[in-house]
Design a protein that fits this description.
The complex is a heterodimer of chains A (487) and B (320).
Chain A lengths: L8 H4 L24 H9 L4 H15 L3 E3 L8 E3 L7 E3 L1 H25 L4 H4 L5 H5 L21 E8 L5 E7 L6 H14 L1 H7 L7 H11 L10 E4 L8 H11 L2 E3 L4 E4 L2 E6 L2 E4 L2 E4 L22 H6 L4 E3 L16 H9 L11 E2 L3 H9 L4 E5 L8 E3 L5 H13 L4 E5 L5 E6 L2 E6 L5 E4 L3 E3 L5 E4 L13 E4 L1 E3 L3
Chain B lengths: L2 H32 L6 H11 L12 H10 L7 H13 L7 H15 L3 H7 L1 H22 L4 H28 L10 H13 L3 H8 L5 H10 L7 H19 L5 H15 L3 H6 L2 H24 L3 H6 L1
Helix pairs in contact in B: 1-2, 1-3, 1-4, 1-7, 1-8, 1-9, 2-8, 4-5, 5-7, 6-7, 8-11, 8-12, 8-15, 12-13, 13-15
The chains are: A alpha+beta (487), B mainly alpha (320).
Chain lengths: 487, 320
């Protein structure tokens, strides 16, 4: 076949299996969903090698821009580009409206929850959430008790993970309330996509996301300590060896703020300064990308050199805003997660707009026995972990792995939860010269300063290996651009 | 600007300048070896090693290509081109938010080019072409540095690194050569002598510039004058010292903090030494000692910059 022939629909979709999982592009009968039609037609009309050519040009653009991440626990090639799929994932206006309202509700409620837990703990007294669950959480920070945080905002920057079930309904898989990452990939994906499919992008009427850094800056500014009208805002990074270092530099540059490391900061009389070539300069707001544990060796882990000694006391004195606040990991603990619908009811007197995934708490004897008997059908997760680490996917596990997990669960039931293995939705990806469906999730980015702001879109993460259910970049996942349509 | 950032920009720039110097000297030395002469290959190689700062583990083995490959690609040897490019990129990576995307992309491309599986093969095919492509990469980086970055403090630290490294390297080069060439000045002008002098100029990309000023009449005295005292040629030491002085002044102007007297004094003295002298004076005196003093003062400037802008004590900073 000559290179100039357009690709036929047939050969593009040659082997595109449909089963009970929701397919983002095709209906159960194989028909292409209305909002995906323009995309499919454009692809089919392209000359055969054109897709590959655009793919290579996009890949090269990522590499020379140094849009890479670091993989832990491997010696060779620790710096890699984030695998990227060329086809956008489309979200209709109606779908987005529900997501936006649902996340706003959820984040508002979780923020109430954190404030309550670290002050009067009414929700515990009312026995809506079990006391021992909260106080046994490894991310609970006793040091935060009774501390007034600016505007009562604990979680200013959030990235929640959504999945779509076979009913077509979006559910929340987890809330990332500590240091969610990936927003730089959302932004750079968009830039590359606009260059790769300019016409298509234009004809679709996609809502913009490019103002995210500006919104983030406004959010940080709104949280500045009182009496600091021109706050000095910085981004605190663990440094160049952190897996998300590219993102830290990217956001700092896009916002025009300094990217600092712990060694750049000093405290004196409960004021945080940074070392500059012109002497010490006072710091007012810290967008913290360092975990609680490593933030201040005097308060948290004493062996950490990534943070700044005295930071917490300066924060406590109200001389500097650190966001997200310390101890927010309590509310994204995977066991507390099971109570989020109750938390929403309790504080907002509303029904959750976005449902949870069914979750078994292993501290409960009955649920635990059920889970251990059905390990081959369930997904087991360690409650305090993220990034796809510490996970057992039942249907894809070996008998030995299951035994190992059963033993760990019995030893420390509070540390694990189980969920059904979800057959979440799939979207078309370019695999070789063809489209094949792969599992995807969606991580929208939520900002909370004066009010809740969500840029229309997010990071669609893809499990690029056939049949795989793990979308984390550290575990071989990739990403695609997410187009939220105007209509 | 953050002290750490200033320091990284400074080192990024120094490393690249060093890489460029090494590539050029290697290119020139290999060119000279093509012409058989009384100066043996080994002596030439050792002279280059000395002017690159007494490189360890690269003693002459007789296999020029293997030695050259080591000098370019051996990432473990701190004198190698790869080591310097790695160092520049690592420093740039730590200040990714401070430099422009164009700068980063250029440097990143150079880095990937040197680490690509094809690099060694290209090197074997044509060493000259390969070295030229590395030089191209470095030049492009410098070009976009000057055109895409705000000429604020960050850029001034880049200039500081560039000019300090260059002043130091040129002084070292002249010191090594003057022992060798300038004392043999009485010797009759052979073609070999001419080639050696052209080589020296080429090490500083200054052959054509020299000819514009002095015509192609090469003499050691004039070359020394040109590379030491010319105020308009970017590789001349005097020009570099001017550059250092301007950079420090600009940093002061944008930052508002006065540099310490000692730093101003060392730079001022060096500036005056080069500005208020002539070549006859230098040659009748102890030329080697003069060049050596320039190197020592460059090192002193480096130490003072580090101590004052990067590693100052909290007490001193709170007091002001």
């Amino acid at each position: 076949m000559s290179a100039s022939h357009p690709v036929e629909m047939e050969s593009l979709f040659g082997d595109y299996p449909l089963d009970q999982a929701f397919d983002e592009m095709r209906e159960a009968g194989g028909e292409i969903r209305p909002h995906y039609r323009a995309l499919a037609e454009t692809l089919a009309a392209l000359p055969q090698d054109e897709l590959q050519r655009r793919k290579q040009s996009a890949d090269l653009s990522f590499l020379t821009q140094g849009i890479t991440f670091t993989v832990y626990g491997r010696d060779e090639g620790t710096e890699r580009i984030f695998p990227y799929d060329l086809l956008p994932r489309l979200v209709t206006a109606a779908e987005w409206d529900r997501i936006e309202r649902g996340l706003t509700q959820r984040i508002t409620a979780l923020n109430h929850f954190l404030r309550d837990i670290y002050s009067d703990a009414k929700i515990l007294n009312d026995k809506v959430v079990p006391r021992e669950l909260v106080y046994s959480c490894k991310h609970y920070r006793r040091q935060m008790r009774g501390l007034q945080v600016p505007r009562n905002v604990y979680i200013a920057i959030v990235g929640s993970d959504l999945l779509r079930l076979n009913t077509g309904e979006f559910v929340v898989l987890e809330d990332n309330l500590r240091v969610p990452s990936g927003v730089s990939y959302m932004l750079t994906n968009r830039r590359v996509m606009k260059r790769t499919f300019p016409q298509l992008f234009h004809s679709y009427g996609v809502r913009p996301i490019e103002h995210y850094p500006q919104l983030l800056l406004a959010t940080l500014r709104s949280l500045a300590p009182e009496g600091r009208p021109e706050p000095n805002i910085v981004l605190l990074t663990p440094g160049v060896f952190n897996s998300a270092y590219f993102e830290h530099t990217y956001l700092a540059r896009q916002m025009g703020i300094d990217l600092v490391e712990g060694r750049d900061l000093v405290t004196h009389d409960n004021i945080v300064y940074m070392r500059t070539t012109d002497g010490l300069k006072r710091v007012d707001v810290i967008y913290r990308r360092v975990d609680d544990d490593f933030s201040d060796p005097l308060i948290f882990r004493g062996d950490s050199s990534l943070g700044c000694a005295g930071l917490f006391n300066a924060y406590r004195a109200g001389n500097v805003t650190v966001t997200n606040a310390f101890g927010t990991g309590l509310a994204d603990d995977k066991a507390v997660y099971a109570y989020v619908p109750d938390i929403i009811h309790y504080y907002l007197k509303e029904d959750p707009i976005l449902p949870n995934v069914k979750t078994f708490l292993l501290g409960d004897e009955k649920q635990r026995q059920h889970v251990i008997a059905n390990l081959d059908k369930l997904v087991v997760k360690a409650v305090g972990e993220s990034g796809g680490y510490g996970m057992l996917i039942g249907p894809q596990s070996t008998a030995r792995q299951r035994e190992e997990f059963a033993r760990q669960i019995e030893a420390n039931p509070r540390n694990y939860i189980a969920q059904p293995t979800l057959d979440f939705s799939r979207a078309p990806c370019l695999i070789g010269n063809r489209l094949e469906p792969r599992h995807v999730d969606l991580r929208p980015y939520v900002l909370f300063g004066d009010k809740v702001n969500i840029v229309p879109g997010g990071l669609t993460r893809v499990a690029l290996e056939k049949g795989s259910l793990v979308v984390n970049s550290s575990q071989g996942g990739g990403s695609k651009d997410t187009w939220v349509l105007e209509s | 600007m953050l002290s750490r950032v200033g320091d990284s920009l400074y080192w990024m720039s120094r490393y690249l300048e060093r890489a460029e110097n090494t590539v050029r000297q290697l290119d020139v030395t290999m060119g000279l070896m093509l012409d058989t002469s009384d100066t043996s290959a080994e002596m030439r190689w050792q002279r280059m090693m000395t002017s690159l700062g007494k490189v360890s583990e690269l003693d002459w083995s007789g296999d020029l290509e293997a030695m050259a490959r080591k000098l370019v690609f051996d990432g473990l040897n701190p004198a190698s081109v790869t080591f310097c490019v790695n160092g520049a990129r690592e420093n740039a990576r730590q200040v990714r938010e401070e430099i422009s995307s164009e700068q980063w992309q250029r440097l990143n491309r150079l880095f990937h080019q040197m680490h690509s599986p094809q690099a060694q093969a290209q090197f074997r095919t044509s060493i000259n072409d390969y070295l030229a492509s590395v030089l191209d990469g470095i030049h492009l980086f410098k070009g976009v540095s000057d055109t895409t970055m705000i000429h604020g403090q960050g850029w001034q630290f880049i200039r500081l690194g560039r000019y300090l490294e260059r002043a130091y390297a040129t002084a070292t080069l002249l010191e090594v050569y003057q022992a060798d060439l300038f004392h043999a000045a009485e010797r009759e002008h052979s073609g070999y002598q001419y080639l050696e002098l052209v080589g020296l100029l080429r090490c500083c990309t200054s052959f054509e510039a020299y000819c514009q000023v002095y015509t192609a009449d090469l003499s050691p005295d004039r070359i020394l004058e040109f590379l030491l005292l010319n105020r308009d040629f970017p590789h001349a030491i005097r020009y570099c010292v001017d550059g250092i002085r301007h950079a420090i002044e600009s940093i002061q102007r944008t930052g508002g903090r006065r540099p310490p007297d000692e730093l101003t004094a060392v730079i001022g003295r060096l500036h005056a030494q080069l500005g208020y002298t002539n070549i006859a004076e230098i040659i009748t005196g102890d030329t080697g000692a003069f060049l050596h003093a320039i190197r020592e003062q460059s090192m002193r400037i480096h130490e003072l910059i580090y101590r004052y802008y990067v590693d100052y004590s909290i007490q001193s900073a709170l007091a002001t």
